[in-house]
Design brief:
By secondary structure, this protein is α/β, with parallel strands linked by helices. About 35% of the residues lie in helices and about 20% in strands. A four-stranded mixed sheet has the order 5-6-10-9, sandwiched between helices. A two-stranded parallel sheet has the order 1-4. Strands 2-3 form a two-stranded antiparallel ribbon. About 30% of the residues are buried.
Length: about 160
């Protein structure tokens, strides 16, 4: 398994909460045919041109695109979510509906629309990733090696808000 951390440059970047990450590849040089792309929760009104170009070029070629928090707004702003069923952080749903009305924004913890998995806030995103792993990989292996050890149970909370 090969992991990439994409960014505009290869300079270290600071994430929340002061976590320093060194990108492995720029948006311009990143492969367009990734198996999985996970987009976290960046500032909704900030997206580098190179990221926009990458998303437009790669979206249909990536096996599965997953977003957490407001990461789905990056995809929507790149124009690739028209007609798709998605979610975002609950606090940003109104903004998402206003900014990108061509996308069907729903109030759910996570939404699966074919090869697109979107989730609400960070907790919903963790559960979505767990649900994806349970669906795509050996359930006993995923449960034993990751979910149970971290005390995560995406099935208990489910994909719908209570």
């Amino acid at each position: 398994m090969e992991w990439h951390y994409l960014s505009t440059t290869l300079e270290p970047t600071v994430l929340t909460p002061s976590l320093r990450v060194v990108p492995t590849v720029t948006y311009d040089d990143a492969p367009r045919d990734l198996d999985i792309l996970v987009i976290g929760g960046p500032k909704p009104d900030f997206r580098p041109e190179a990221a926009d170009r990458f998303l437009k070029e790669a979206f249909g070629r990536i096996g599965c695109v997953m977003t957490t928090c407001v990461g789905s707004l990056w995809l929507a702003s790149a124009g690739v979510l028209k007609g798709r069923r998605c979610t975002t952080n609950r606090e940003a749903l109104g903004m998402a509906r206003q900014w990108y009305p061509e996308t069907e924004w729903v109030d759910e913890r996570w939404v699966v629309d074919g090869d697109l998995w979107t989730s609400g806030g960070a907790g919903a995103g963790i559960d979505m990733l767990g649900a994806y792993a349970l669906e795509k990989f050996d359930k006993d292996l995923v449960t034993t090696l990751s979910l149970r050890g971290l005390d995560f149970d995406p099935e208990a909370r489910g994909k719908y808000y209570k």
